[in-house]
Specification:
single chain; 6-stranded mixed beta sheet; 19 strands
Length: about 350
């Protein structure tokens, strides 16, 4: 693997010098000023909440292929893929973004989950010729969103990845086109800390620097869910629409929970899905339960991801019984803040 060295705090220290304010854990960038991140059309956000695992060795692809919900063996150098890591019961422990280059295969996931997920994967390597390493300090990530993103990136990536999950690599790092959000293109630039530190002053001439949560808000708008600590082992992939956005390959071989995931796919019409909703509470969080007025005694679903839109509202992805979507649905209790549902950017198709 390429020898890229950086201290664990090098990227955070650089961002602090640029005016970034961090949360109490030093993980999320809260902003670079008074501008509300929700209001920005074109922005760049440090993705300091994400960790990165590198898998190397001649059997790394085969090993991961037997652990994840998507095809790793046929992952090409010009593409990225979503994938899930399930328990033996088919419940998601993590959702990942994966790609490969000449150095190895990379798994990106929330930094808070990474140590435990990496340790769990390590347990199953056994005699496989594969190694896992935490490279979060070596390769930082930026999220770039909006019409101005192409101009901001042009100096380093003259040709941009054309479609979602296309990927371009060069000496400046890895650029992945992510799913569009509300018609706006989104990109992740993953590179050495020195590279992104050098590029930052020019990027912010085109794109407004803003909070990490602004990127997560665009994930929600794009209908792309992410498993967090509060929602581990709560959902099979179809419950969060994961197969609809390319996160599950039903033709690949076995992986933990594969039989249950396959059974969920082929039993017919799915009764639970994840919907896009505005919640009349800025305090909505992943793992919060939601209740339908017609059946107030038991929850009809759970918040998968949520981020504040303003002081009084949050945008959320909510997993729930589809039958309850026509009812009045509330956060926390039948009399709690109301949910207002919106169309997702993709169709909620039934299994074929």
């Amino acid at each position: 693997m390429t020898d890229i060295t950086a201290s664990p705090s090098a990227w955070r220290d650089f961002l602090a010098q640029q005016g970034a304010q961090f949360d109490d854990q030093g993980q999320d960038v809260l902003g670079f000023g008074a501008v509300a991140p929700q209001s920005l059309e074109s922005f760049v956000a440090p993705l300091t909440d994400l960790g990165l695992i590198a898998a190397t060795g001649e059997e790394a692809a085969a090993f991961l292929h037997g652990q994840l919900t998507n095809d790793v063996q046929h992952l090409t150098a010009d593409a990225a893929r979503l994938a899930g890591y399930c328990s033996p019961k088919g419940r998601l422990l993590a959702t990942l973004l994966m790609w490969r280059d000449e150095a190895g295969i990379f798994l990106q996931l929330p930094r808070a989950l990474q140590p435990a997920i990496q340790k769990r994967l390590q347990m199953f390597i056994l005699r496989a010729k594969a190694k896992l390493a935490d490279v979060s300090a070596e390769r930082a990530a930026l999220g770039l969103v909006g019409p101005a993103a192409a101009n901001g990136l042009a100096e380093w990536f003259p040709v941009l990845p054309a479609a979602p999950y296309d990927k371009v690599d060069n000496s400046h790092g890895t650029l992945i086109r992510m799913a569009d959000a509300a018609g706006s293109p989104r990109y992740q630039w993953i590179a050495a800390v020195d590279t992104l530190s050098t590029a930052w002053p020019k990027l912010v001439q085109h794109l407004k620097p803003t909070a990490t949560m602004a990127w997560r808000l665009t994930d929600i708008r794009a209908g792309v869910p992410g498993i967090l600590a509060a929602t581990q082992e709560q959902f099979v992939p179809q419950m969060i629409n994961f197969e609809l956005i390319g996160g599950v390959n039903f033709k690949k071989g076995c992986y933990p929970g594969q039989e249950i995931v396959a059974r969920s796919q082929y039993l017919g019409k799915l009764k639970r899905r994840t919907l896009l909703a505005t919640i009349a509470s800025a305090g909505a969080r992943a793992g919060d339960e939601v209740f339908a007025a017609a059946d107030p005694g038991q929850p009809c679903g759970m918040v998968v991801n949520a981020e504040p839109l303003d002081q009084d509202h949050a945008l959320a992805l909510v997993e729930m019984k589809l039958a309850a979507a026509d009812d009045t649905v509330h956060l926390g209790a039948a009399g709690g803040p109301a949910l207002h549902f919106h169309d997702l950017p993709y169709e909620l198709a039934d299994p074929q």
